[in-house]
Fold this sequence. Notes:
By secondary structure, this protein is an alpha+beta fold. It has one domain. Helices cover 34% and strands 17% of the residues. The protein has 3 helices and 2 strands; from the N terminus they run αββαα. It has a two-stranded antiparallel sheet with strand order 1-2. A hairpin with an 8-residue loop joins β1 (14-18) and β2 (27-32). The longest helix has 10 residues, at 44-53. The two termini are 23 Å apart. Its main location: cytoplasm.
Amino acid sequence: xxxxxxxxxxxxxxxxxxxxxxxxxxxxxxxxxxxxxxxxxxxxxxxxxxxxxxxxxxxxxxxx
Length: 64
């Protein structure tokens, strides 16, 4: 998955492989729209993207 925010903002579909590189990578972690990724509360990638986009601050407490 490209971690460039400008690329992600313009993408129609994202594929996130991981959870790490090498032997611990290559697994399909997420596939779908960028909005779907940001809504995925189990995704480590989404957690960092929400932080970088400033979106975690708008979530109600208990929903983080």
